[in-house]
């Protein structure tokens, strides 16, 4: 099965576009993803990106809840209110919009981070710091990385 793995940092061009790494584009092609669902991550200052199946997975979780429950309402607020659909251009570039910049702090470079079934857009230094923190916490807990 194709997965989004590894990370890569690319520069944003003068028109505000960034090239999605070829390995990530290959996964999108293998999965026949035409439209990207992007949402503001719940934990990290990152934008999570996947196909419509990613949105559908969250909507199934919401549908399993009482529609008037606080959990269902919070999840909908995050998934629907904090999400947008986007498309890559013909050259495999993504427009780095205010939606992305405002939430992540991205300015001139984007770090693409594989998360198995989706990928994330990070401000490069924030990714390095979060990864170091995660390693440190696992080390303190005596867990193998």
Assigned CATH architecture: 3-Layer(aba) Sandwich
- Strand neighbour order, sheet with most strands: 1-7-8-4-3-5
**CA gyration radius, whole angstroms:** 16 Å
β-strand number: 8
CATH topology: Chemotaxis protein chec
The assigned structural class equals alpha+beta
Counted by DSSP, the helix tally is: 5
> Which range best describes the helical content: under 10%, 10-25%, 25-40%, 40-55%, 55-70% or over 70%?
25-40%
Could you name the CATH class? Answer: Alpha Beta
CATH superfamily: Transcriptional regulator MraZ domain
Separation, N- and C-terminal Cα atoms: 23 Å
Average pLDDT: 95
Structural domain count: 1
Task: Please tell me what the overall shape is.
Answer: globular
Question: What can be said about the biggest beta sheet?
Answer: 6 strands, antiparallel
Structure keywords:
Chemotaxis protein chec; alpha+beta; 145 residues; six-stranded antiparallel β-sheet
Give your account of this protein's structure.
38% of the residues lie in helices and 23% in strands. It has helices at 22-30, 52-63, 70-79, 98-104, 124-140, and strands at 7-11, 17-19, 36-40, 47-50, 83-86, 93-95, 109-114, 119-122. The longest helix has 17 residues, at 124-140.
Summary of the model, kept short:
Helices cover 38% and strands 23% of the residues. It is α+β, with helices and mostly antiparallel strands. A hairpin with a 4-residue loop joins strand 7 and strand 8 (119-122).
Write the layout of secondary structure elements.
Elements: E1 7-11, E2 17-19, H1 22-30, E3 36-40, E4 47-50, H2 52-63, H3 70-79, E5 83-86, E6 93-95, H4 98-104, E7 109-114, E8 119-122, H5 124-140
Antiparallel strand pairs: 1-7, 2-6, 3-4, 3-5, 4-8, 7-8
